[in-house]
Amino acid sequence: MYNYQKIEEKWQKYWEKHSELCRADDESHAKKQYILDMFPYPSGHGLHAGHVESYTATDIISRYSRMKGFNVLHPQGWDAFGLPAENYAIKTKTHPSITTKKAIVAFKKQMRMMGFSYDWSREINSSDPSYYKYTQWFFLLLYKNGLAYKKQGKVNWCDSCQTVLANEQAENGTCERCKNPVTQKDLEQWYFKITDFIEDNGQTSGLLSGLDKVDWPESTKTAQKHWIGKSEGSIIKFKIKSLNIDSKFFLEVFTTRVDTIFGCTYVVVAPEHELINNYKLQITNYHEVKKYVEQAKKKTDLQRMAETKEKTGVKLEGVEGINPFNNETIRIFVADYVLAHYGTGAVMAVPAHDQRDFEFAKKYDLPIRKVILPPVLLNIPRNAEEIRTEAECFIADGELTNSGEFSGLTSEQARKKLIERMEKEKIGIKKINYKLRDWLVSRQRYWGAPIPIIYCEKCGEVPVIEKDLPVELPTDVDFMPTGESPLVNSKKFQNVKCPNCGRQARRESDTMDTFVCSSWYYFRFADPKNKKEFTSKEMIKKWLPVDLYVGGAEHTVLHLLYARFFTKVLHNLGHIDFDEPFIKLRHQGTILAEDGRKMSKSLGNVVNPDDVVKQYGADALRLFEMFIGPLEDTKPWNTRGIIGIVRFLERVWKLKLRITNYPEAEQVTNNKIEKLLHQTIKKVSEDIEALKFNTAISALMILVNEIEKQKELPIDNYKLLVILLSPFAPHLAEELWAEFGNKESIFKQSWPKYNSDLIKEEKIILVIQINGKLRDTINVVADISEDEAKKIAFESEKIKKWLEGSEVLKIIFVKRKLVNIVVKD
RNA sequence: GCAGGCGUGGCGGAACUGGUAUACGCGCUAGCCUUAGGAGCUAGUGGAAUAAUCUAUGAGAGUUCAAAUCUCUCCGCCUGCACCA
Fold first, then answer.
1. Which of A688, A647, A722, A632 lies closest to A53 in space, CA to CA?
2. How distant is C1' of B15 from CA of A333, in Å?
3. Of all nucleotides in the shown strands, which has a C1' nearest the CA of A221?
């Protein structure tokens, strides 16, 4: 039995003393490798199984890369600002800086316990003034370039967190943090102009096209594309008519399906649409309309969504629209199934070819006019005149009918022609629409980076002068939430002179969304102590972009989109010469509890890394989490399974007893083991590079199984095995390495190269098939010729028996693999 | 509904560009050792059959000499987005 507790503690101490072992060297000319974890939010719960999984993966690659001779940057830091810390502070009535500090100490201790090889000399903390000074600098950079602005508008408001939220944080109508329903408020807030970077911007690739050049999971790329939500269509202008008089005003609708324009039997506007107010006097049932609008506005997104089955709306009496293509007069409705913030907030309804319009038309008994026939190819009956059910509502492209001169064209052809005519007659234009809106970054909370803006009665909105950064977060503040930023109440904080005119002014009291802090932290690691710049040009050139980024898939749209935006801004303004921050990205899969459910405190099924390490050791936990399955898969924890890893480590340890160290001349050359060793070097190296740790470990197990079967164990073979194991089980490897009489850390060793001559198999098992079924296997020399192989195949007794009385039609030979004899049945 | 992905023993999972399905590990069975064992060692372990052999990668079809792998249809599961016109 090896005493993992003693050994692990011993080497953790050693590594702490010899921090140069994992230091990223600014001076070195060796090829760099920037391997990054998503810096954690230091919560009071400590590391969980998921942290251990991704951090172990990057640790293995970092140790491996260093041994390969790369200059590795593998840093760690703290995403320390944020609502949870503040909420926790409110609950415990302790200042968030104190609880955060405590949590960081605990996290670091656990990371040390796991044997992670971070370069701690580069540790950063986003809540430290020396860090958020540059978060504020970034705000000013954006501000000065017209990319940060304030505007009044509808925003998502979380009543429980007492703050506004970005769209990305209000998914499904609930707050991303506390899961409470989000309501809409009309407020003036700060935004970043992320929409300027959807498409290519000068030399800078856009958020869409940039995705084509990075090595990211396909699902993440499509999720981002989906979030950006590009759709190509057109805006069509409907003239408005009231009291039988044509008005000068137009109602603009956005559609991707101009080809269905002749099927438009009414139009619908969102409850927030300006038309309602502008035509207040003309709308004869204004009271009814107003009542509906007010009800709709009161509903949260969640409530609106809960009603998706039942569409509601009110007809605007007294006003009508005119379809510019056929001059037909049509009804106008207000309904909350139309969203104010998408497109123009108004749609042309084509009930025959849109499910939502169909539902609405059915309910209010509106005309349904079929204008698209399914393509002949699809073999769908084309003549059913009436559309009675949703299923008959054909929503795909097809062939136009009932569409005047456009009848007979395909949807695609028709769109082209219709847009041409529209633009010629100035009744509409081609238009690209996006779902992505600008990023709302201000928060009415305390625990965040203050927005560096000053309001002066005379000069208005004035940016803080760069040399006055950081605008420090006051500590003498009551941080209980009131809906207004707690900073409003800090006299010390508010007492400021206008940088322009010197008059008494007041500071912006909102803080920034924490996602702003995490949008640029990967730059800071390259130059964490810089007091003059966020990172020097030189260090950016040296270390960035990030070569490998590993983290949870929950950041698919939020953090990863924002970080890309920041990088693109820097590129666009000439600060850096790359426009994508993360070359290769991978997500670790969720580790479920043993019962197959998510680990959660309330279910009481959480596996605490501390307990596992105590019972089995850190090396065992590292190996186990890597062994249970592919990194990116969701996989359940298995307490029994870890026993297998413990046994494996014990067996490696016990190999010590079998070392046979004879003089060179007498050394028995053990071909089998030698070959397997080199095959294992190849396999483990390739697997680490492909992040296939589970199969790398299984290759090591196969090697150990084989070594155990041998009588002799030359020390060199053992050494090689231990080196191969070292990135996975660093503590055990160091200990054995020392026992071999080495004075230096094993991580000073260079990674072994395999001998490609040695791993070639000179004998293979040739598979003999008859009609594709395995009938015999024969041991032959690997590069056996086709003729020879066929000859041997037919000499086999088994094959002879199988072939009795059959007529051979064909013989397939696959080099180094098989002979397949095809016979007539 | 849309998008992305998945479906292989009792369980976690292997299987490179189609070429011996079930590597490795857990569990299980038998034996050895032991006062004892949640320890160690040895052997076995997809299913059916005494065996030869047959049969198995969610279901069904197709392409192929050969399919877990490629194509189509269906079923089931997971993840993300979701009244986005």
1. A632
2. 60
3. B4
